[in-house]
Design brief:
Strands 2-3-4-1-5-8-7-6 form an eight-stranded mixed beta sheet, with helices on one face. Helices cover about 15% and strands about 45% of the residues. The protein is α+β, with helices and mostly antiparallel strands and about 130 residues long. It is built from two helices and eight strands. A hairpin with an 8-residue loop joins strand 2 and strand 3. The longest helix has 12 residues.
Length: about 130
């Protein structure tokens, strides 16, 4: 990995078959507020807020997201997605969804050797 760059969790979302009902569940249980958020080609995405602060997102499992596991996915910003994906397979993990571009960066979903899922994110660099 690139030395000197701190990697950190920065986002979480949930992708499920019946996003509208599950969204309503979390609004009722957690007291969150939901609002539609247009993500260019993928418009079925809701931002969840608590006291005006964005806390998460929820969307439908279809199209590019059809095989996304129904878990609260944590996204970790990393320096190099290519290097990280090479380490995933070298260390006994699996790539669940290979790299794809989402507006401001590249992401992939992986499964670690214990079976847990996490999303890796590389912010697109200008130029």
């Amino acid at each position: 990995m690139t030395p000197g760059r701190i990697v950190k969790p920065f986002w979480r979302d949930l992708t499920v078959q019946n996003a509208a009902a599950v969204k309503d569940f979390y609004v009722a249980v957690c007291g969150w507020t939901a609002r539609d958020h247009d993500m260019e080609a993928y418009s079925d995405f809701d931002i969840l807020t608590a006291d005006g602060e964005v806390v998460a997102g929820i969307c439908h499992a279809r199209d590019d997201n059809a095989d996304t596991p129904p878990v609260w996915m944590t996204y970790v910003e990393i320096a190099s997605l290519d290097e990280a994906l090479a380490e995933v397979t070298a260390r006994g993990g699996a790539i669940v969804q290979d790299r794809r571009f989402l507006g401001s960066g590249w992401m992939a979903i992986i499964r670690d050797p214990a079976g847990a899922h996490i999303a890796l994110w590389e912010t697109r660099r200008p130029g």
